[in-house]
Amino acid sequence: VLIACNTLLPVAMVMNSALNQSGPDTVSHVTLATPKLGKGTSLTVGHKSSVHRVMSLDVTQYPRDFSAVGQFGQPAVVPKEKELESRNRWDEGHFNVYLSEQIPVDRAIPDTRPDACSGKLVHDDLPTTSVIFCFVDEVWSTLLRSVHSVLNRSPPQLLKEIILVDDFSSKDYLKEPLEKYMSRFPKVRIVRLKERQGLIRARLAGAAVATGEVLTFLDSHVECNIGWLEPLLQRVIC
């Protein structure tokens, strides 16, 4: 499911019109004619399935090291004897790279969702997704933490794959070491671009090989929290 921004309005208008003519639990099939999707493109709108509360899935609830720096989102401080090293390494990522490296790449973080989010109902038959990260010379710890957060807090039946698109990075640690590290995760694969393409073309390269029903693009320096995925996929089908 990939709809260009300038097609959202006509798509939404047709879908709303179809749904207003049918019951809340019926499935309607409409034919669209939009600049991007083309005449005669079909989409199924409406939904009929049972629902469940958003899953509170987090395999890091019981981390390996409860006392690790930054565990459970606790504040972390650079030791005085490491302040110079921390400042010297700032330009590697334009943030505190030294401190990021002290924090586990699969750390636990608190569930910060409001009650309205944690109690939200979603359909049982949500589509699968391919999560695509595009990066250039990303800091090792933040890239790995991004991937781990998706693996650890996504319902496995919905996470089809994670695609890492390397937009011609120059850092050695993003070559063979990254391949070796990610080889332990069957759902993760790496796409290497042979020259710098820029963000949009890198995303298109990821989309070209994706097999999930929905494409989810994330920055390569994020942490997904509990219950992050299902509400997004719910918006796609409703």
Give the topology.
Layout: H1 8-20, E1 27-32, E2 41-46, E3 51-53, H2 83-88, H3 97-102, H4 115-118, E4 121-123, E5 129-135, H5 140-153, E6 159-166, H6 176-182, E7 188-192, H7 199-209, E8 214-218, H8 230-237
Parallel strand pairs: 5-6, 5-8, 6-7
Antiparallel strand pairs: 1-2, 3-4
Domain Glycosyltransferase 2-like: 130-235
Keywords: Disulfide bond
Protein name: Glycosyltransferase 2-like domain-containing protein
Written description of the protein model:
There is one protein chain. The chain is an alpha/beta fold. The chain has a domain at 10-16 and 112-237: Spore Coat Polysaccharide Biosynthesis Protein SpsA, Chain A (Alpha-Beta Complex). Helices cover 29% and strands 18% of the residues. It is built from 8 helices and 8 strands. It has helices spanning 8-20, 83-88, 97-102, 115-118, 140-153, 176-182, 199-209, 230-237, and strands at 27-32, 41-46, 51-53, 121-123, 129-135, 159-166, 188-192, 214-218. The strands form 3 sheets. A 4-stranded parallel β-sheet has the order 7-6-5-8, with helices on both faces. It has a two-stranded antiparallel sheet with strand order 1-2. Helix 6 (176-182) links the parallel strand 6 (159-166) and strand 7 (188-192). Mean pLDDT is 84; it is low at 1-45.
